[in-house]
Write a structure and sequence with these properties.
Blueprint: E1 5-10, H1 36-45, E2 48-54, H2 61-69, E3 74-79, H3 87-95, E4 100-105, H4 118-130, E5 133-136, H5 140-149, E6 158-160, E7 171-172, E8 178-179, H6 189-195, E9 201-205, H7 208-211, H8 222-232, E10 237-239, H9 252-256, H10 258-262, H11 268-283
Parallel strand pairs: 1-2, 2-3, 3-4, 4-5, 5-6, 6-9, 9-10
Antiparallel strand pairs: 7-8
Helix pairs in contact: 3-4, 5-6
Length: about 290
């Protein structure tokens, strides 16, 4: 493909154990694994040179072991502990274990008036100060609250996960993947377009398999992709695989070819930005060998 490829959002984990504790969930049962040794040969074969590894939950032990064993090959995103009384302290605790490029934000604690409690504003401020991106994936209310405060944090990179769609619950399909029932585009898309007006907000080109009502290459999402490209431009659209959920269907190689299939008018230089250049610039990632 001619460009340096960065997978900007994927997961690795091992079975639940005392050494590597993690939550147990419908999506990832106690014995389920997605080991680094499973991922790397496929990623290397596909020319992916760097990957952003996102924790499943607020346990980071396996991710820390992967970063230690493969220095420079991965970057890390920790996941908010929604039960923490002090979200900022939760972030700082995670930084003691991992050098983070992002912190996945499930909630801003906002109420119906879109008022965000000071504790969550302190979290966003701490992230801005430390150059840690807000990996944002929440419900429609919290997304609207984010749009109401984004101007207060102009130096905070905000990465809207999975096309900017909102969390709305899911079921597991026959392949063990999350399936999320939603309109295409969702009602919340107007909020995404508002957020796109801010230069520090980017969106992840990923998760199509979970939302689409059609098979790969998900033609029912092509117009949504076009609108995202128009709103964010090629410089704030970031490709990601969401491995391992896509490992069997449609497969990792297929995801690498999805951007030009969904965005047929994209130029080679713009494609290079989406497939890796934007992740490097927005997250401060240095790909080895450059």
């Amino acid at each position: 493909m001619g460009q340096r490829i960065v997978d900007a959002h994927m997961h690795l984990f091992t079975k639940q154990s005392n050494e590597f504790p993690r939550g147990v969930h419908e999506l990832y049962g106690e014995e389920l694994t997605a080991h680094v040794e499973d991922y790397l040969p496929i990623a290397d074969q596909c020319g992916v040179e760097h990957s952003v590894l996102v924790s499943l939950d607020d346990h980071d032990e396996y991710i820390a072991s992967v970063l230690d064993r493969y220095p420079g090959r991965f970057s890390a995103v920790a996941v908010m502990d929604v039960g923490a009384e002090d979200p900022r302290a939760d972030l700082l605790r995670r930084l003691e274990m991992l050098p983070l490029v992002g912190f996945r934000v499930w909630t801003l604690g906002a109420n119906e008036s879109l008022e965000i409690p000071p504790s969550y504003l302190h979290l966003l401020e701490a992230m801005q100060e430390r150059g840690i991106a807000a990996w944002f994936y929440s419900d429609e209310l919290q997304q609207r609250a984010l749009a109401s405060v984004v101007e207060r944090f102009p130096e905070l990179t905000i990465m809207l996960n999975h096309l900017g769609f909102c969390q709305s619950g899911f079921e597991c399909d026959e392949w063990g993947r999350p399936r999320i029932s939603t309109k295409i585009p969702p009602d919340s898309f107007a909020t995404v377009q508002r957020l796109a007006q801010h230069e520090n907000v980017a969106v992840m080109f990923s998760g199509q398999y979970a939302f689409s009502k059609t098979d790969y290459p998900y033609p029912d999402l092509q117009e949504t992709g076009r609108m995202l490209l128009e709103a964010f431009g090629p410089e704030r659209l970031v490709w990601a695989s969401d491995w391992p959920w896509i490992s069997e269907v449609p497969g990792y190689r297929a995801l690498l070819d999805l951007v030009p299939k969904q965005l047929p008018g994209i130029s080679p230089s713009e494609l290079s930005q989406v497939m890796g250049g934007n992740a490097q610039r927005l997250l401060g990632i240095e790909v080895q060998g450059q």
